[in-house]
Amino acid sequence: MSQPPPQQGFGAPYEPRPGVYGDPGQPPQPPNRPSGGRSHGRLVGLFAAVLAGVLVIGAGVWFAVGGDDGSDGKKPLAKETAEPEQPGAESNGKKTPAAEAAEINKGRKEGEAKVRWIQKNGVDVPLGASALGPWTTGGIVAKAMYRTVSGYSLEDGSQKWSLRLPADVCAAPTRPTADGKIVIGLLTDTSADTEENCDKLQMIDLATGEAGWSVTIDRAPNNDMLRYVIMAISGDVVTIGGLGRAEAYRVSDGKRLWGKLPGPCEVEGFAGGSVMLASVNCPARSKGEVDQEVRRVEPVTGRTLWTYKVRKGWNVDAVHSVDPPVIFLRKGPLVGGTSAIAVLNDDGTFRSQPAAGGDALEGRCPGKERELGWNLDICMGAAVDTDTDTLYVATKPRPAGRSFTNDVVAFDMSTGKKKWKVPSPATQTLMPLRVEGGKVLLYLSPPDPRTKGVGGGIMALGPQGGTPRPVLRHPASAAATERAFEEAIVLHADGRSLLMLPQVSGETDEEELELRTMIAFGD
After folding, report:
1. Does residue 3 form part of some domain?
2. 307-360: per-residue pLDDT in tens?
3. 352-355, long-range: CB within 8 Å, 24+ apart, which pairs?
4. Counting C-beta atoms within 10 Å of the first and last residue's C-beta, which end of the chain has fewer, N or C?
């Protein structure tokens, strides 16, 4: 039993934003550090902003492939690269990603891993763009932006295929199926009298880039508005939730399995993996208010197996583990609210609440960095070890020099009591990824610019705490490049690590084009 299963080739990261279950004052926010997490209020706020015409959703492409962006009604086609695209020399004299990687590797010291490859955005994206993914299968890592889904070699970063889509990508699950399939959401065509809706689904084989089935969700019966949706995959089932709507389809053939759950409650979204959990809003006794529930749902039938009623006034913000269920809750606004973690038993009954004490627990949710992909299971920073009944959580970063530092706290999941706390190195932060071989793996950020000779990397802590031990040392010569990957999504497996930016933007077109968007480490 564990968190949702990792993707092939790279382990899926997880992280929460817990705190004290109550209303104590929150410690001051570190400067220039946006608060993470997500909530029903956030989704509603985004929805309201669209109606008010004040929210602009960015769009863009990782690697453009020739052709018209418009929809011609034809099935999207994957364009396979005949000869793998390798970063080469540029006429404007700018340093290429390949040259940057080579320069970094020249400066690496004994025991440090090499930079396998670096990728830049390379495309002028209008107003910035959200990146969905990364998803791995076999030797491929794929990501989606704007109207393109592209697959790259994990070995050298060369582009293996690129799938041009007829419309903007608007949603996607955090993880693919075990056999490397993903289903993404696309915006439907709009006219002057209709709102954009994320109601077209497209299945894609991540190994080949081949487009499979597609379907448009029928909105007529309920006049649903599906602009911001939450997607998840559990087994061979993909679910779509958000703003009251729930749909489930079979990934292998696109068959619709079920729709709205029975009763007056509405689904906010699902979290996938070995178990499927749903965040549900139900009418409260007080008019205009809602009560929240967490339900375990049978993926194929939609049948509710158990229900956990969230304490009144609290919202489900994220799901950090589905088996056992570890739920991040929030009370109050997205910024400045109070947060907590609830650990549940397998039958949905309350088990414990980690007692943070004076520590401000926090996770990293890439959704806060982008306007798309606010999935319930997207957050990183917490890891579950069922063998030792331990939950590992990161604390909120606090200022340290020109950077930040934090701690990792271990809790007994049966009692919620703190086992130990381990500090990060000065001017660096630690973020739990997952448990492997009885140890928690953590991402160590690079230090501030004044700290020389030190890089980031992947570290490990045993169940008794102690000093973090290096598993994969990123070269100190890569620290400046790695620092630019702020709030990155981090994957690690098989002795290698991968960082991806969840949002692409720049002050100028040139800055946006040159932005480094993925970097891979390992020998």
Report:
1. no
2. 999 999 899 989 999 999 999 998 888 777 888 999 999 999 999 999 988 888
3. 352/411, 352/412, 352/413, 352/414, 352/415, 352/416, 353/21, 353/416, 354/18, 354/391, 354/393, 354/409, 354/411, 354/416, 354/418, 355/20, 355/411, 355/416, 355/417, 355/418
4. C
